[in-house]
């Protein structure tokens, strides 16, 4: 029985390692007539991530017109944004939006890691 329990523990440990290694973020931004369709997916629930992403939109001068968010087991955001008055359509492109979202995720993730390190 002991080796069976050991195998279960080893398998569980490998599974946890695989899960952490595959936590990936997908960010897709499509250009619309006057704004963007933004999709963000992360394979785990991320408390507080939505706020960080919305702050990035605000920093870019984007106004969210419509959004769907799921934060149960995974994080998924689908948002339609418009550029605020005064923004020229050439000033921001899809790549700029994507990089801003990815940077917001990196900063949020680093903050979460720092908080986790402080707990130990």
UniProtKB/TrEMBL annotation:
Subcellular location: Nucleus
Pfam families with a match to the protein in the record: bHLH-TF_ACT-like_plant
Major location category of this protein: nucleus
Name by which UniProt lists this protein: Plant bHLH transcription factor ACT-like domain-containing protein
InterPro entries, alphabetized: bHLH-TF_ACT-like_plant, TF_AMS/ICE1/BHLH6-like
Recorded GO CC terms: nucleus
Keyword Nucleus attributed: yes
PANTHER family for the chain: EXPRESSED PROTEIN, TRANSCRIPTION FACTOR SCREAM2-RELATED
Organism: Sesamum angolense
Keywords, comma-separated and alphabetical: Nucleus
Plant bHLH transcription factor ACT-like domain: residues covered: 27-106
Keyword Metal-binding on entry: no
Molecular function per GO: DNA-binding transcription factor activity; sequence-specific DNA binding
